[in-house]
Recover the amino acids of this structure.
């Protein structure tokens, strides 16, 4: 058998493919063989679902021999599987051997394209789907051309303009024919054609139609499209220049990748957010624990965290230097192994990148283990306690607690060999961790020192307890060593280290959840290190460096009903069967060994422990920590045997397997002895709750779509104030049956409708909650992936959407990338709303593309999200400024500019149209052609562009403090059909004025055509410029320069042109006309009067509106004039007012133009 | 896309990396400049349009416009204007016969005499206009039908006029000078004015025929070909006269070489096409008397002697003769004065309305803003 290298594109269904470690899987492959003796293959699916832990895949049994190379020649069976589909979690099929024996397989035997093989030297299998049919490709709905909402609306308005043009031309054509009909003989001023014949009047009218189109075509604002592009470029320039959106740590500005939808940022109604890495840092940090009733605060650790968060540039660079260490021999081996010539290079860059990540405290690529999270500074008191127990007895609640922390999980230990390149930095962090955990190894000192530096900077000497081996050769970190004269305590001899780690050069944990990673690292900090896990054994290294190898008897995995997991092990020393359990506090507390249930046998100590622990737990919860309880149970041999038999039966069951398994688990999980509890902090990104609140107040609905477990998701939702414990009525949808789903939907919908219809209830709520009206918005919906797909099926979708409309917050858990995008699409299409999707991972790409505006959070999880996004930011909090300030600005600027542009063109063109009534509809222009062209191109083009780029109605600080101002954009108040028609009407009025005042002035006089046109042109210029001046809300130097410059340009160009051009532009004769006019006082009188009359209505209307019915924006502008202290007070007052004021109007479907705020 | 993602990640790692490798400070940060312009913090004037703030503007406009309007109105009223229609549509009209008989190619000369009476005396210079109604000199194809370079004295254009002149470009295989429909339809009535002295004698009033065109037209825009060659008949020898003309262009004013050919002022005035179908064109100027004591035109009876050449019946046109004095604002037109007065009054009225509104509503806002 010989393997050949093939390109991805050449891989066909039915090929046998072997993939090596760290390679990306080229197609969907049915796994038939791995190098792993247990027949498993690990793969990382971050590219597909954003989950960063490793997934285990098993070979289809019976087609290869473990330990021997795969022999595809011997494969003679038929693979039958389902048609290609996009479901990443379901795959069914069987292999039929020649002897008709069938072996079934499922998704756990399928290697998915786009994933990466990890921890497995090689894996081989047969391709079942290739190319476009692979699940990842089917999940990847291609890019969508995005066009902004304003532009879509504008296009219809352009159609209206065309219609208007058509009618005007039709009038011209008819008028011309009728006018020609009135003559019996042709007068001398009607010019015959070359042969002296006159065109018949009907035909002449027909021709005139097209001549009119040419004359009046400016009506269709072609220049508008060009101007819009320019304006958007300017807007994008200012967005990217915003220093507030600049991330110091990543040295990155906001990126505007889509150039044409800036104003959509100002119209967002629904925000769909990813959770992991977007709302959270994805950092689980061990904060506190309580062991047998004693609380250990871990103040040192807290202090360290505080310092690390505030670490400045200097330390980052130190860190960076440290990560760029020489490669370990093993890695070099790996390099040559993969044969990647650029490897070394990429490694360094990966490390470079890591530097910023470490510094930013961002999530490390996998297993949630940046130093920030993994490094736990042990509580000194607790360390002493552990040491004491270690010294005296080899068992005790403290040891049990840490053993439980170390082994009661599903964390996989991976080694450096299997490390991916990009985890280089992490291996260092692990190295540092070893020292913290009082281990010592060569080449991994530097991170500790950096940590120490943090401490020193903070004026503390936390590094004191740690060791520095003075004999350590300072090969790579001489500079650091000089800094670190403090480390002093060596607890382990090198020989022992080498013995214990002879195989595993470094220990890396692949945890399924960040919690587990945080816990296992916490255990490690106290010296309890899990060094190996196989399906049958788990090995833990104790602080005194003895290895305990537990035999794993059974693992009762976590499920959301029991809300706990257990591991049953046999203690190597005592041979006892011990069950360690961890779980949610309620799930453990109610099953403690008869503490509360049986009062007669009250064990006073146990009871006290439980009470104290509960108190601590309550405190943790108040602090926003995620709590987990740990318990232990010693099971007698007999009991276990009996139980195990039932368990085995359940395992082999076919019907109701899951229920039976759960029953067995419940049967054994009781009579716990409480060991303690932990408090873990899942760090939200900074200002996430504030941002969400601001977005809400701006009228946006915030949804969170996550692939995460419901528990985690809900927890985060509460901590980021998406859901509120007190105010929200949370409905959870999680079911596998459609009928149940349907029932729930209907019930909930009924309930929601009832409550929203009863005004009495609302009053009560308002009374209770200090001005917040809650009824409509107090509903939170939590729905999981399977239920979601049912709810989105055709028959239920209407109800689902209806329900969603009533919800203040929706949280979708366990959703696939495709579901994310289909949710976005559903809401976008059904509710016809503007949607925004924000995410950081590859799993958010679809959603980002499906939404009207896609935002990528960069610097966390690779670049796919950013690549697919329209805008890329670095922190979730930037969304607030991006939407509320820039979005709003861009929207109102562009909307105003577009309206103004329509107005401008119509006003100008109509001048020519009115003239047709006085020139026999012969399409004469009374304005010189060049001046007409320049009028649009030069004299009046810059002001609206500047207006679109720079106008600012309300300052950014006011917009941020009053998110309600954003609502104008959501309801498209800046640019409605009515606004458009008002602008057109105003244009008609103004053009009438601009034409007829000069007309009546000059009627019957000896004025020439172009002498007649010149004042009109001038008046139009003044009117158009001053019209804009009325609309401009803030005048900066740029405004003045451009406005005055435009007028000056007009006069200079016109004067120069009419001075130079004696006969250059027949037939328009501009010669000396402007000079003649400007020497005539009548010219100025006409211009003044006309301008005033033309603008009077608009000006008066603005004034009246400003006085009688000021818009919220006007109120906000008046606020800005107040001194800062008064302003704050007024803003607070206003908020109170709006809250009470807006909500009734919201209920009546968003007719919220009530003049509440300034009343 | 998925496939290439891994590379993308690594490549993307380059930029922060490059920052790092340069050490702190040596690589330019991407941090945007914190300038007022880039951060959109330029000092700005932010006017708020409310009744209170714009009140003065309205009153100001009112106060300025009304006097201007009154001034204009008075000025316009002081202008004396006399107009007489001599088209000859009515049977009773003296020019009826001429109007009936006339066509372009008629060779006979028809004259008529139109008597009229001035009730007021006209002082200062009196401008004599001819007026045409319903004459669309602004028709697009008519306006185009000329060759400005020919009129500017360009030799080559003289002999091969612009195509715009079609069909009045050539006649009898010779180029027409001046070519085009405008020139072709030159107004060719001759008007003379006589004062009928109470004693019955007819005194011809001296009509000045120069100074009626724009100086720039006469001296820059319109030039005779051949420059200083005063013998225009030689210059124009290879050209043909416009088909409707009785005489060639060099015979327009044989007596005055400075008013002959293309620089004939009657011709220049005609060539400046009127903007509206009812227009007047300056024909002659009656200069004020030297002594300043007697009016230019005393009240009394006058007679307008018309050599009736110009046909207007085909388009139902009218021909008028207008006598007008002139002020700084041009001819008589009360419109602008009235408009100024009206707009001024409206603004004043609006100002009052706003004042009331301001007192009723504006105060409430103010108190909320300031005293609250």
């Amino acid at each position: 058998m010989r393997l050949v290298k093939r390109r991805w594109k050449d891989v066909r269904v039915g090929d046998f493919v072997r993939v090596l470690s760290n390679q990306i899987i080229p197609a969907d492959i049915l796994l038939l063989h791995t190098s792993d003796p247990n027949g498993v293959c690990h793969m990382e699916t971050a590219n597909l679902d954003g989950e960063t832990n490793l997934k285990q895949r098993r070979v289809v049994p019976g087609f290869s021999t473990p330990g021997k190379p795969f022999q595809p020649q011997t494969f003679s069976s038929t693979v039958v599987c389902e048609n290609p589909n996009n479901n990443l979690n379901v795959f069914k099929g069987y292999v039929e051997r020649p002897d008709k024996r069938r072996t079934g397989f499922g998704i756990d035997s399928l290697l998915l394209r786009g994933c990466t093989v990890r921890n497995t030297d090689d894996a081989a299998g047969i391709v079942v789907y290739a190319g476009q049919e692979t699940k990842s490709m089917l999940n990847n709905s291609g890019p969508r051309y995005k066009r902004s909402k304003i532009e879509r609306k504008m296009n219809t308005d352009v159609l209206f303009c065309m219609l208007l043009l058509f009618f005007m031309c039709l009038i011209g054509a008819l008028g011309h024919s009728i006018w020609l009909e009135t003559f019996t003989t042709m007068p001398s001023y009607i010019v015959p054609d070359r042969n002296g014949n006159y065109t018949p009047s009907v035909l002449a009218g027909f021709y005139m139609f097209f001549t009119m189109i040419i004359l009046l075509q400016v009506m269709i604002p072609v220049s508008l499209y060009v101007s819009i592009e320019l304006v958007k470029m300017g807007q994008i320039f200012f967005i990217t220049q915003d220093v507030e959106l600049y991330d110091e740590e990543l040295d990155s500005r906001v990126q505007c990748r889509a150039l044409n939808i800036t104003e959509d940022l100002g119209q967002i109604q629904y925000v769909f957010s990813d959770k992991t890495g977007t709302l959270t840092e994805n950092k689980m940090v061990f904060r506190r624990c309580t062991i047998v009733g004693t609380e250990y605060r871990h103040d040192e650790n807290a202090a360290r965290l505080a310092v690390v968060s505030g670490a400045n540039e200097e330390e980052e660079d130190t860190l960076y230097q440290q990560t760029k260490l020489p490669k370990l021999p093993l890695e070099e081996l790996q390099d040559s192994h993969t044969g990647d010539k650029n490897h070394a290079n990429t490694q360094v860059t990966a490390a470079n990148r890591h530097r910023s990540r470490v510094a930013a405290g961002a999530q490390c690529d996998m297993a949630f283990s940046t130093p920030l999270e993994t490094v736990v500074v042990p509580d000194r008191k607790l360390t002493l306690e552990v040491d004491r127990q270690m010294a005296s007895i080899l068992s005790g609640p403290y040891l049990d607690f840490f053993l439980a922390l170390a082994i009661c999980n599903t964390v996989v230990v991976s080694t450096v060999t299997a490390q991916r390149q990009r985890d280089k930095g992490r291996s260092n962090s692990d190295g540092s961790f070893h020292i913290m955990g009082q281990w010592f190894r060569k080449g991994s000192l530097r991170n500790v020192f950096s940590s120490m530096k943090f401490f020193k900077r903070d004026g503390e000497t936390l590094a004191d307890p740690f060791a520095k081996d003075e004999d350590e050769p300072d090969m790579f970190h001489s500079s650091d060593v000089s800094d670190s004269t403090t480390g002093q305590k060596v607890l382990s001899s090198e020989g022992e280290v080498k013995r214990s780690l002879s195989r595993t050069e470094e220990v890396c944990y692949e945890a399924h959840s960040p919690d587990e990673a945080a816990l296992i690292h916490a255990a490690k900090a106290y010296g309890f290190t899990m060094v190996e896990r196989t399906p049958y054994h788990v090995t833990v290294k104790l602080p005194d460096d003895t290895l305990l190898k537990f035999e794993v008897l059974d693992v009762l995995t976590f499920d959301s009903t029991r809300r706990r997991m257990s591991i049953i092990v046999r203690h190597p020393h005592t041979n006892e069967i011990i069950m360690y359990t961890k779980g949610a506090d309620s799930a453990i507390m109610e099953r403690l060994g008869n503490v509360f249930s049986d009062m007669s046998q009250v064990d006073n100590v146990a009871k006290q422990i439980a009470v104290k622990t509960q108190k601590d737990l309550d405190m943790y919860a108040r602090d926003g920590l995620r709590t987990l309880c740990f318990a232990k149970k010693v099971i007698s041999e007999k009991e276990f045997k009996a139980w195990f038999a039932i368990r085995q039966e359940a395992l082999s069951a076919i019907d109701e397997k899951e229920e039976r398994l759960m029953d067995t688990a419940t049967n054994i999980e009781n009579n716990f002895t409480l060991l303690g509890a932990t408090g873990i902090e899942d760090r939200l990104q900074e200002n996430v709750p504030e941002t969400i609140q601001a977005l809400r107040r701006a009228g946006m609905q915030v949804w969170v779509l996550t692939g995460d477990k419901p528990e985690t998701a809900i927890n985060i939702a509460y901590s980021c104030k998406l859901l509120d414990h007190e105010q929200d009525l949370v409905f959870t949808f999680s079911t596998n049956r459609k009928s149940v789903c349907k029932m729930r939907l209907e019930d909930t919908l009924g309930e929601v409708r009832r409550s929203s219809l009863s005004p009495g209830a609302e009053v009560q709520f308002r009374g209770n909650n200090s001005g917040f009206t809650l009824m409509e918005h107090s509903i939170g919906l939590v729905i999981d992936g399977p239920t979601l797909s049912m709810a989105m099926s055709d028959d239920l979708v209407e109800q689902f959407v209806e329900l969603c409309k009533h919800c203040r917050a929706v949280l979708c858990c366990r959703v696939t990338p495709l579901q994310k995008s289909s949710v976005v699409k559903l809401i976008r299409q059904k509710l016809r709303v503007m949607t925004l999707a924000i995410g950081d991972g590859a799993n958010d790409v679809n959603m980002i593309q499906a939404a009207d505006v896609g935002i990528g959070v960069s610097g966390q999880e690779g670049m796919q999200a950013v690549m697919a996004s329209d805008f890329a930011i670095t922190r979730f909090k930037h969304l607030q400024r991006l939407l509320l300030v820039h979005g709003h600005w861009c929207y109102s600027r562009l909307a105003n500019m577009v309206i103004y542009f329509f107005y401008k063109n119509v006003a100008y063109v109509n001048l020519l149209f009115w003239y047709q009534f006085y020139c026999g509809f012969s399409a004469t222009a009374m304005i010189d052609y060049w001046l007409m062209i320049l009028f649009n191109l030069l004299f009046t083009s810059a002001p609206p562009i500047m207006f679109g780029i720079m106008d600012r109605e309300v300052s950014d600080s006011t917009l941020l403090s009053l998110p309600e101002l954003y609502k104008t954009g959501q309801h498209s108040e800046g640019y409605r059909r009515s606004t458009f028609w008002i602008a057109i009407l105003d244009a008609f009025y103004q053009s009438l004025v601009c034409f007829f005042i000069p007309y009546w002035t000059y009627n019957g006089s000896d004025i020439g055509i172009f002498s007649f046109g010149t004042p009109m042109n001038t008046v139009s210029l003044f009117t158009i410029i001053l019209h804009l001046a009325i609309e401009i809300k803030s005048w900066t130097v740029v405004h003045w320069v451009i406005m005055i410059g435009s007028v000056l340009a007009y006069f200079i160009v016109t004067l120069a042109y009419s001075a130079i051009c004696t006969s250059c532009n027949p037939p328009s004769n501009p010669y000396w006309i402007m000079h003649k006019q400007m020497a005539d006082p009548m010219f100025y009188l006409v211009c003044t009067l006309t301008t005033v009359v033309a603008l009077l209505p608009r000006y008066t209307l603005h004034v009246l509106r400003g006085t009688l019915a000021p818009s919220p924006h006007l109120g906000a502008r008046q606020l800005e004039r107040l001194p800062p202290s008064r302003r704050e007070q007024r803003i607070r007052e206003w908020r109170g007012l709006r809250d009470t004021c807006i909500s009734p109007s919201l209920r009546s479907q968003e007719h919220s133009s009530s003049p509440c705020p300034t009343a | 896309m998925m496939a290439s993602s891994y590379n993308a990640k690594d490549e993307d790692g380059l930029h922060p990396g490059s920052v790092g490798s340069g050490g702190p400070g040596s690589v330019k940060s991407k941090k945007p400049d914190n300038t007022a312009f880039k951060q959109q913090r330029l000092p700005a004037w932010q006017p708020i349009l409310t009744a209170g703030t714009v009140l003065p503007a309205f009153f100001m406009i009112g106060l300025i416009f009304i006097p201007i309007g009154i001034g204009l109105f008075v000025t316009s009223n002081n202008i004396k204007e006399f107009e007489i229609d001599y088209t000859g549509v009515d049977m009773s009209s003296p020019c009826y016969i001429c109007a009936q008989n006339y066509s372009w190619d008629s060779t006979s000369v028809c004259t008529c005499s139109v008597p009229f009476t001035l009730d007021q005396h006209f002082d200062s210079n009196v401008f004599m206009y001819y007026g045409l109604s319903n004459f669309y000199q602004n028709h697009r194809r008519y306006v185009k039908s000329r060759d400005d370079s020919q009129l500017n004295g360009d030799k080559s254009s003289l002999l091969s006029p612009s195509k715009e002149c079609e069909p009045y470009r050539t006649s009898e295989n010779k180029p027409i000078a001046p070519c085009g429909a405008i020139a072709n339809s030159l107004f060719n009535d001759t008007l003379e004015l006589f004062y009928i002295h109470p004693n019955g004698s007819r005194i011809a009033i001296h009509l000045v025929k120069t100074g009626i065109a724009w100086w720039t037209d006469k001296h820059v825009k319109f030039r005779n070909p051949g420059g200083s060659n005063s013998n225009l008949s030689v210059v124009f020898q290879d050209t043909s006269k416009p088909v409707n003309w009785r005489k060639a262009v060099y015979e327009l004013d044989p007596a005055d070489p400075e008013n002959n050919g293309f620089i004939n002022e009657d011709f220049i005035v005609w060539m400046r096409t009127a903007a509206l179908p009812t227009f007047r064109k300056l024909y002659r100027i009656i200069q004020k008397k030297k002594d300043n004591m007697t009016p230019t035109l005393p009240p009394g009876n006058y007679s307008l002697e018309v050599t009736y050449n110009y046909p207007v019946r085909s388009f139902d046109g009218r021909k008028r003769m207008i006598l007008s004095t002139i002020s700084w604002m041009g001819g008589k037109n009360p419109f602008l004065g009235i408009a100024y007065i009206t707009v001024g009054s409206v603004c004043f009225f609006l100002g009052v309305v706003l004042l009331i509104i301001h007192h009723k509503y504006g105060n409430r806002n103010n108190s909320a803003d300031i005293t609250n």
